[in-house]
Design brief:
alpha/beta, elongated, nine-stranded mixed beta sheet, 22% strand, 39% helix, six-stranded mixed beta sheet, 15 strands, VC0802-like, Rossmann fold, 387 residues
Amino acid sequence: MRSILVRYHEVALKKGNRPYFVELLKRNLASSVRGLGLKEIKNLPGRLLLLFDEKADREEISDRVRRVFGVANFSLVESTSRDLEILKSKILASLDARHFNSFRIVTKRGDKDFPLTSPEINREIGAVVKERSGARVDLKNAELTISIEILPRNAYFGFDKIVGAGGLPVGTSGRAVSLISGGIDSPVAAYRMMQRGSQLAFVHFHSTPYLDKTSQEKVRELVKLLTRHQFFSRLYLVPFGEIQRQIVASVLRPLRVIFYRRMMMRIAEAIARKERADALVTGESLAQVASQTLKNLSVIEKATTLMVLRPLVGMDKQEIINQARKIGTFETSTIPDQDCCQLFVPRHPATKAELVDVEKAESRLDLAALTQFGAENAEVEEFKFPA
């Protein structure tokens, strides 16, 4: 039976709440590898052991497990007896097809009653591996790492640890609604919130029929990519062009972007109430564009009673781009499109909007009707992973 040993770090610090976090991590792991022959997930001290049938695709399993938030790292492992001679023979047999010039042994004892210490196990196993392979020991830059876990009933060994997504299991930090534009920033913001355990629904504002549907197509692809981390997503596609048209007819040019953002907050809040979400998430970064000055951000967020989370607020553009490349959203985000931010946007937007001026201008609009129009006319799509 094929096995994967999953290790978690931050989850282990939760003390009395640890069982809750571990159970959610187990649920998410099971969701991630659905259809790949999972037989059982076993609780081990500080670890989880996933058991699969012999026909399971190890590469596909590894690719899915590494995306699960809460996983610090994991290894493809084989189970064996805790008897040191049996452990040696199994490791040597597994190394026969491998070629390496340097190696190291890393042992962790989950059972401190085992008679040998970790360094003693390292020396014993290392000696026979060196004799058989002729490779040298390198504790810092080894070509091959042999990981050994001594647990109460069995020992497990594998080669090289695979880095996981880290963070906390999705679902442990409540629900939020993420505003997603199709650009570079908002998918990264969503990813960072999921990494902190939030389950997200997504809201995209588009200006069809005034602009084409490219932004909607991009957002669908971005949500599909992000759903690999939370396994189920709901996307609301809000028609915003008519709302923008009414704002343009009533509001002076410099304040229009502020009005757009505040209307987006109101509509997103209405959707968040449906989703039983407690916060809104945006991809705003301080001073990146004119609407994202400290003064403007303060005025914009006062349009909603919900908490507004801005996980990118202190990041510069290059840092955001680097993370977008790392998580796989950059290529999609940079496809040219026409989103609602390009429609009716003034050349010189206000950078220091005053709340009193904005609220006075808003009094000429039926805000409740516009909010209801946006929320009730949103198209809803659902995404699942695995599909």
